[in-house]
Amino acid sequence: GDSVTQMEGPVTLSEEAFLTINCTYTATGYPSLFWYVQYPGEGLQLLLKATKADDKGSNKGFEATYRKETTSFHLEKGSVQVSDSAVYFCAPSSGNTPLVFGKGTRLSVIA
Amino acid sequence: DGGITQSPKYLFRKEGQNVTLSCEQNLNHDAMYWYRQDPGQGLRLIYYSQIVNDFQKGDIAEGYSVSREKKESFPLTVTSAQKNPTAFYLCASSMPPWTGFYEQYFGPGTRLTVT
Q1: Cα separation, A38 vs A47, whole angstroms
Q2: What pLDDT is stored for residue B96 in this prediction?
């Protein structure tokens, strides 16, 4: 079945620093790939997605590129803000089964 | 506004009691899901349903039960058989996979505390 490995957190950055959160996956076929964000005490929100190789998903300054050759979907942002402090989840899906989530990476941004 | 509602936000129960968590969606999604989240554990799938009157066990179904009598509703019952029920419960929904749109949309969650 599908699986995902995310970098361990927590990640602590100063405001305006560059962010990378690594994500690698295993899946059958050609999965779609997703990044979700969870703010404290809330449900998950879809942050961005990519549906085929070399696609770049982007939203709110975050980007991730679907790299089939390395089975990766790393999340990046050029300049983080305090409001980006949250837990980030990577998830692949081949479509016929529910999304499989990693353990999440907690990001703390300090002013 | 379309979305997923979960109620209540916080729920407290005594050990040995069954409790039902509500999940309603007005997104016209066929598929619905229940996840459990514990600190540092990520999300674990309890049950999911891809169509009315049908559902499948997820990775940690023991001690839980569900029903799917209506497209809009997917209630989760935490039974007294669940050894460690205190957790944050998240409901989600999605369009059917054949549409090519796999993303799940989540409700705000219910935090259940059993003492």
Answers
A1: 10
A2: 79
pLDDT digits (tens, 9 = 90+) for A34-80: 999 999 989 999 999 999 999 999 999 999 999 999 999 999 999 99
Among B104, B105, B113, pick the best mutation site for testing chain A contact (most A Cβ within 10 A): B104
Q: Note whether B105 and B24 are within 8 A (CB).
A: no
Closest to A104 measured CA to CA, from A66, A81, A75, A80: A75
pLDDT of the residue at A27: 85
Residue B60 has a pLDDT of: 95
Indicate the residue of B45, B90, B103 with minimum beta-carbon distance to A46: B103
Closest residue by Cα to residue B89 from B81, B80, B77: B77
CB contact (8 A) between residue B33 and residue A98: yes
Q: Pick from A7, A21, A38, A52 the residue to mutate for testing the B interface (most B CBs within 10 Å).
A: A38
